[in-house]
Fold this protein.
Amino acid sequence: MKAEQAKRSKMAALYWSRINLAVDFIENNLDRDFTLEEIAAVAGFSKYHFHRIFHIFTEETLFQFIQRLRLEKGATLLRDVSQRSKNSSRREVNRRYLCRCKTALSILESGIEE
């Protein structure tokens, strides 16, 4: 029984390290499109196995994970711009953004922890 548990924990550690390689790759390439095959290859898995393992370990699908990171990055950039806009009020920055993107800045920021 202990040998089986040790084997499982070693496998989990190996999987985590490989998933972390993929996460690092995604974080460093958020500004471009990539394929499931490409990310799976970075982790050293087939695309089918990677997608299944990624979801089990992160509790998000790969698509959800990438979308969340991109939204967080965008909201952070917008928050930084609004903080640097000394001559514009928060309301003015939000109004301009809403006119351009049809989404209130506060909606994007609600998912970001300060």
Summary: The two ends are 45 Å apart (CA to CA).
